[in-house]
Amino acid sequence: MRKLPLYKTKGIVLLTKKAKEADKNAVLYTSDYGKMEFCAKGLRKIKSRLGAALEPFTLTEIAFWWGEKLAIIREAKIIHSYSEIKENLDLIETASFLARVVDRLTQANHPDKNIFGLIVSSFLWLSEGVNPLIKPFFSLKLLSLLGLSPQVSQCVCCQKKRQEAVGFSLEKGGLVCSAHNGNYLPISQQAIHILDRLSSLNMATVKRITIAKNLFGEFEMAINSYLTYQMGH
Ligand SMILES: [Zn+2]
After folding, report:
1. I need a labelling partner for 212 at 20 to 30 A (CA). Which of 29, 62, 218, 230 fits?
2. Is 139 part of a structural domain of the chain?
3. What separation in Å is there between the alpha carbon of 198 and the centre of ligand 1?
4. Alpha helices, DSSP H, located in 20-112
5. Pick from 114, 101, 122, 128: nearest CA to 27
6. How far is the CA of 160 from the centre of ligand 1 (A)?
7. Do 88 and 187 fall into the same domain?
């Protein structure tokens, strides 16, 4: 029998799903191939040697070959287990959110080193503890890397400056001023300011800032609504 060549890459495990018999499929965001679904033979057996390395939210080095339908994992070795995340329900919830957003918004086999880097650094940030800014920051950065950034610096319809904006339109993908009718989420100038700032800051700076609770709720709702809208397409 011809020996199939083995390929190596590293990736973050986003999720796993049951497959036939004792197998499981694992969806990883890999550094070389982007999002990819793999079959892990025998992963549901108690003594599977692949087990820990293919748990969700693990940075893993894998060796695989291309099967007929799915790539098949031969070896998996933990690079970083982010064990702090797995021991805390709030962190698990946030990690699941990040993984779901990546899974829903990225296309399979479209590698992007920046997206891979964003996921790895965000999981590292998350393993330091709960920070309410992780979800919105991650969402805005990922949307930006995918070319889906909302327009938050001016009116998306007539380019009037941000100070004239009264709402956020999911359909049009950004701020709208009072000159336009239609469906939009009302949004305050303060929340707009945060949206605009958060889009332009880097992670190291965002780690150091806090946002007043009442404003946070408003701006988080705008981002989450936009994200849900994008994930529905
Ligand atoms: Zn306008």
Report:
1. 230
2. no
3. 22
4. 83-86, 89-105
5. 101
6. 5
7. no
Same domain, 205 and 117: no
Residues facing 169 on adjacent strands: 174
Distance 175 CA to ligand 1 centre (A): 8
Nearest to 56 by CA among 119, 115, 113: 119
| 124 plus 51 within the same structural domain | yes
State the distance from the centre of ligand 1 to the C-alpha of 231, rounded, in angstroms.
26
Q: Write down the pLDDT at residue 121.
A: 97
Q: Give residue 115's domain range.
A: 1-130
Percentage of residues in the chain having pLDDT higher than 90: 79
Q: Mean of the pLDDT values across residues 47-76? A: 90
Cα of 148 to ligand 1 centre, how many Å?
Answer: 20
Question: Are both 155 and 53 inside the same structural domain?
Answer: no
Residue 178 Cα, ligand 1 centroid: separation in angstroms?
7
pLDDT, one tens digit per residue, over 56-66 is 999 999 999 99
State in Å: Cα 162 to ligand 1 middle.
9
Among the three residues 130, 156, 172, which one is the final residue of a domain in this structure?
Answer: 130
